[in-house]
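Throughout our pipeline, every protein is held as a single compact record rather than as scattered files. Such a record has a labelled line for the sequence and another for the backbone structure tokens. The remainder of this section carries one protein's record, kept here as part of the documentation:
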Amino acid sequence: MSNEINETKVLCDIVKNYAIDNSIKYVVIFAKQIENVLYLQSILNDTDVKVLATTFPNNQILYLEGEDGNINEVTPEILNTSSRDKLKKKGVDLIASTLPLDPIIIPGNEYNPYTVINQTLNLFGTGVNLTVQSALMVTDNGYIKPGERIVSMTASIAVDLTTSNSRFLFHPELGIKIHKTLD
């Protein structure tokens, strides 16, 4: 088992205990693959905590640098039919949606305010931008109501936050509130 997988499992265990101790009803995990989602579900299966998984939009192609230095086109494993079926059997809802802070690609224009927001969120820890976007995704898609306290996580960081709709992200009363990072 790789060190990265061990660290993620340790984080999942921390999240489980934190959610139970703080009466949090939902844990949202952003994932490209299903292994971490299935592990999280297995350790929360005997609790009242519901696991929701978020990922990239359907038909999204990712461009990732391979070990050889070449850029490869990859479709996230979690989006294939077999993965979706496994998650469904385990009772995990998969929300495949546009990331609310993903910049729109405009050829010749490199400025995008969403990039600044993403970078600012990551000042709190690498991946905080994805935890916030996951929380927005599940709220925007009706899986969680605005104002719900949840834990939102990636493979490397988890955040205790209160949800909002994307439109109200920075609203003084209705916006997302980050309470604590767990890493």
